[in-house]
Amino acid sequence: MSADGPDTEDRSSPDAVAALREIGFWLERGREKTHRVKAYRRAADILAGLGESERERRRAARSWQELTGIGPKTAAVIEEAYAGAIPGYLAELRAAAKPIGAEGAELRAVLRGDLHTHSDWSDGGSPIAEMMGTAAALGHEYCALTDHSPRLTVANGLSAQRLRRQLDVVAELNARLAPFRVLTGIEVDILDDGSLDQEADLLAELDIVVASVHSRLRDDRDTMTRRMVYAVANPRVDVLGHCTGRLVEGGRGTRPESEFDAEIVFEACRRYGTAVEINSRPERQDPPERLIRLADEMGCDFALDTDAHAPGQLDWQGYGCARAVACGVEAGRIINTFPVDDLLEWTRSPGG
What pLDDT score was predicted for residue 153? Predict the structure, then answer.
């Protein structure tokens, strides 16, 4: 998979499971309705769970629709793939896909990874292995898994015990995906007093800590400023996530920016070596461009992330790249242009 979409060993004729998953990728990338995406991903999971003899029996009988969760459209994809052809719907999606954020293509080409992603361990829709396999196929050298922390119960945030179990899963996955690297991480909630929603010793074990405000977004300016400064000054924090909390479009509606003194917060980011995230999600576009320019003028570093909750969203980095280029942010100031060893040296240094 490249930045322009999936690559398989034989892109011309993927197997049925791969075809269904790739359709899901393109639908997610194109911001289609969730129920449409789930139909293809569910069918892929059902098909992948069948034994070889059961698959052959149903293939011969053309009885795919007898399986709950496989309908006429997904059955047609399966039939075409088993016939050795590119399913028509997949071919249509491939042909219709356009580059995302063409203005930022040069910057996208030098990004080595993504530092803010979610799996089905919290509020993402796909397993860790599928998210990270897609990141590798997109050409990334590394990708951070940053599921939510426990206070965000609506997002099934990870307790310390669950996060420790996840670290074991990541270690096993790294052994399989090498040289691609899954970075251990978390999107930790900034609590009301600016402290962090996870055990300090556990945060110290992680490769990447993204700290974000998810609650009391309408606190007054002084309160929010103190809260954010306290968090970004914490030596465990590497990235300040979607700093204004705004929503500008999408199914969740819109939400105004949180009020805080951006100069004070960005000066704290610069002083304590915390990168300001340029969040690529279309509904966030956070920070707004005036704040990207301010952070850049003040000498901040940046992390250009997708905040992906599904495999197809991992290709949304182009949106953030276009905005970074429009604001004059140089590639050398974006920490996920660093090789992985340099990135980890930056995160572990006193000023990073």
Answer: 92
